[in-house]
Specification:
The protein has 293 residues and is an alpha/beta fold. The chain contains ten helices and 15 strands. The strands form three sheets. Strands 1-9-2-8-7-3-4 form a seven-stranded parallel beta sheet, sandwiched between helices. Strands 10-11-12-13-14-15 form a six-stranded mixed beta sheet. α4 runs parallel beside α6. The radius of gyration is 21 Å and the shape is elongated.
C-alpha cells in the first residue's frame, strides 16, 4: 500500500502536524528537536516535553542555541513531564496514560491562553520493552486522530532509529502524515541544500549554477569529516553546471585519505553532464546508490 507523507523542515511545522523523526545521531536530534523547542519558546508557545532529562540536558538548547531553558520551566512555558508520571504504569509503557496526559496538557495550555502548544517525546525506550512496538502503534494512531484536526497543537514523535528494526520503524512512520527534518542550510528558491545524517552528507534540490558555487562550497566544507565519505543526494537536483563539477573534483582531491564524495540518486540528465566530462576526470568522486536510466 502506498503511503503519502508531507516532508517538512522543522521550522515549517504548523498546528495539526503530527510529525515523525527517526534520528540517526545526537546531532540530528539536536538540530530538529532543539529548533522545535527553541522556536516554541521564542514565539511564546507552550512546549511540553515527556522526558526524564533535566532542562540543561535537552537536545540542542544549550549546545546549539546557547540558552538555559531553566527559566522557561520555572514560569511554566516549558513543561517537562517525567516518564513515570506521563506514561508508565507499574514500570511499563501505558499508552492510555500517555494519551490522557497529553490531552490534559493540551487543555491546560489552551486554558492558560497560549496560542499553540508543542509536544514531543523520545519513545525509543518504549520500543525496547516486550510488545512495545505494538503498544506504540496503537498509541500513535489514536494520537494522530487527536492532533490532525487541531488548530493549536503540533507534535514530534521521536525515536533513535537504532532502537528498533527497519520494519518497526516503517510501521511507526506510517502512522504519521508528516516527516520532519532539519532546516535547510541554504534555500533561495532556486537551490536548496539540506543536511542528511543517514548517510552523512547533503541533499541538493533545484539548480546548482555559477551564482551558487560559493555557498555550495562553504556548505560542503562544513560537513567534512576526516576519513569519511560525504554523500550528495542528487534526487531532486535538476541542473548542475560544469563549474560545479570542477568544484567537486577539487574538493574531493583535497579530502584526507579514506574520504571522498559519493553521488547518490543521479538523475539521467545530470548523469549525462558527468558522462560528458568523464568520471576519470573526477578523482575521489564515485557513483552511489539509486538507479540511473
Amino acid at each position: 500500500m502506498e503511503t503519502w507523507f508531507a516532508e517538512r523542515p522543522v521550522g515549517d511545522l504548523r498546528p495539526g502536524d503530527h510529525a515523525w523523526l527517526a534520528f540517526a545521531s545526537g546531532e540530528e536530534q539536536s538540530r530538529v528537536i532543539g529548533d522545535f523547542v527553541f522556536d516554541g519558546l521564542n514565539t511564546q508557545e507552550k512546549v511540553v516535553y515527556v522526558t526524564d532529562s533535566r532542562p540543561l540536558e535537552l537536545p540542542g538548547l544549550l549546545t546549539r542555541h546557547r540558552i538555559d531553558p531553566t527559566p522557561f520551566t520555572e514560569v511554566g512555558q516549558l513543561r517537562l513531564i517525567p516518564l513515570e508520571k506521563a506514561c508508565r504504569t507499574r514500570g511499563r509503557f501505558d499508552p492510555d496514560r500517555m494519551l490522557a496526559t497529553l490531552n490534559q496538557e493540551i487543555e491546560v495550555a489552551f486554558d492558560q491562553g497560549y496560542r499553540a502548544v508543542r509536544l514531543t517525546a523520545d519513545m525509543g525506550w518504549a520500543l525496547r520493552e516486550p510488545g512495545g512496538s505494538d503498544l506504540m502503534l496503537g498509541c500513535e494512531q489514536e494520537f494522530e486522530a487527536a492532533v490532525a484536526p487541531s488548530t493549536m497543537t503540533m507534535a514530534i514523535c521521536q525515536v533513535d532509529r537504532s532502537s528498533c528494526s527497519p520494519g518497526e520503524l516503517t510501521a511507526l512512520r506510517n502512522t504519521h502524515e508528516v516527516l520532519v527534518e532539519v532546516n535547510p542550510e541554504f534555500d533561495d528558491g532556486i537551490l536548496k541544500i539540506t543536511r542528511t545524517f543517514a548517510p552523512h552528507g547533503l541533499r541538493l534540490e533545484g539548480e546548482l549554477d555559477g551564482a551558487r558555487h560559493a555557498v555550495f562550497a562553504e556548505t560542503l566544507s562544513s560537513v567534512a569529516v576526516p576519513k569519511s565519505k560525504v554523500h550528495l543526494d542528487f534526487t531532486r537536483l535538476s541542473f548542475i553546471d560544469l563549474g560545479a563539477l570542477n568544484l567537486l573534483a577539487i574538493y574531493a582531491m583535497r579530502m584526507p585519505g579514506g574520504g571522498g564524495l559519493v553521488l547518490d540518486n543521479l538523475r539521467p540528465d545530470v548523469e549525462q553532464v558527468i558522462e560528458m566530462v568523464g568520471w576519470h576526470r573526477l578523482p575521489g568522486i564515485s557513483r552511489g546508490q539509486g538507479e540511473r536510466s
